[in-house]
## 1
Amino acid sequence: MKIIVFLGAPGSGKGTQAKSLADRLGFIHFSTGDMLREAIQRKEPVGVQANQYIVKGELVPDPVMIELIENALSPLNNTATVVLDGFPRTLPQAKALDSSAKTKVSIAVSFSVPQNVLVDRLTGRRICKQCGASYHTVFLPPKQDFICDKCQGPLFQRPDDNQSVVVNRLKVFESQNADLLKHYESTHRLVTVNGDRPVNVVQSDLDRLLG
Ligand code: AMP
């Protein structure tokens, strides 16, 4: 199995890029944020537990997250290439992946974006309830207010994209990120991408790196 991890602050574009890379190159994509939101919707115990942290912009405890990702990866066969988006977020999570030959990370891509850009991106973000497509009130508005261009589903704002939770999510990210970068840099697996550019420009960089 080949594991690629996307590191970056909330709003850095790693989710958008991970989805599109996986679609184009046939990789398997796991977003731990999406997995948790689905578990919340289905009222599964892990979702109920995680939601207490998510609404405050805090991290769900490592043992919960490590079990979630191990359960997702274990059925896959060794020929799969997997993009992880939103995992690892802490050093223990990174070490858990590396602790098994099957899930050892091949490359970590870090998306770098200035803080003020992140706040604007997150607070204006709107998501389609039906297909998950992402819009922005200013940078990428839908053709019709509150309606998805792709599937006509209703758009909503994630509860944790409001200003006060966003500020905490970015603070939490800052507190964990340096350790993660060090972990991958010291083992020569880190590449950094400037995420403060148009989606298609970042995308062609990633294709060159990972295709
Ligand atoms: P995201 O959609 O990636 O921004 O994740 C939304 C929220 O889910 C985060 O703010 C965390 O509360 C939680 N979460 C997602 N992935 C992780 C992880 N790897 N470790 C801890 N919490 C996570």
Note: The first strand starts at residue 2 and ends at 8.
## 2
Amino acid sequence: MKTKIIESTEDNINIDGLKEAAAILKKGGTVAFPTETVYGLGANALNPEAVNKIFIAKGRPNDNPLIVHIASFDMLSPLVKDISGKTLKLIEVFWPGPLTVILNKNDIIPDEVSAGLETVGIRFPRNLIAQALIKESNLPIAAPSANLSGKPSPTRSEDVIEDLNSRVEAVVISDDSEVGIESTVINMTSEPPEILRPGIISKMDIEKVIGPVILSKGITTKEVPEKPASPGMKYKHYSPNANVVIVTGDSDQVRLKIKNYLNNHNEKIAVLLSKSKENVYNEFSNISIKKLGNNNLDYAHNLFSFLRDLDKEGVDTILVEQFDLEDHNLAVFDRLLHSSNYQLI
Ligand code: TXA
Ligand code: MG
């Protein structure tokens, strides 16, 4: 199919273009669009046939449920039941924004969205283009990340086009995603609530608002329970073609290990700097060096785009300097663990 390209910025919303995109959604088509986390691939969440097109376009396993996106608090109550006081507190603070809450679903949500679960994930994104598109369509929009299943999530419009051109009806292209990693997913149907996927809104950020929550066991451990709380956890994820290796230890140890690796491997290697603020691997001329940045916001913003760029350079191995594993860094570390398939040295 021919993919229609529609351009918009948040400062200057292309309302005619978004009306066209909304018309495609209303007719049961698929439209990729920017959000503040990563680009999403949307379809009418209430139309099973439309939702199936998402799975086909991405090559996504059918037992991995989708997040439903809304653009006002009023859109929430028809979709779910049992909205607790705790949930209300949470969404009042973090919506619109990069937080997905898992709640008990109403029958209006088709099984295709929830993958047969009794629950559904809902998110109110803060990106103004996403909001305008949802409002124009006047529909809840099911949207996973707009990448081919297994690849790093797309944070730039060119990534979306690379993965989904001719597989979807339209792509709304815009600026790079502000956050760069996917939303925090929290299950509000369990007590204490459980973070199923860490994101830029951290455990501590959430606990300041609603008190104790737990981190799902699957986060940062390779063992996946037979019936994972979040079905997506069991799939290969965020993987570039290159081999990713996380290099652990204090600054000196990390540098020593990386230099040893470089001395002993005759392949195309890239190093992502976090602990090192500048290139401390000058003596090696044949490597790609990229600065992941100075803090968790930089790391999140850069990670997926770097992985995709290094694949284009044909890099064989990406060595990543491990950063501190404090609360606010956990989400990026989680993505790195998946990208590396848990290879740490
Ligand atoms: O930031 C984001 O959340 C992006 C943008 C587009 O909004 N979307 C996104 O969707 O990352 P996706 O499909 O790539 O990831 C959704 C994750 C998956 O790991 C899925 O298994 C989990 O959320 N999930 C969805 N519904 C669930 C449910 N009812 N129970 C447990 N986990 C659920
Ligand atoms: Mg995804």
Note: The pocket of magnesium ion (ligand 2) is lined by residues 144-145, 153 (CB under 6 Å).
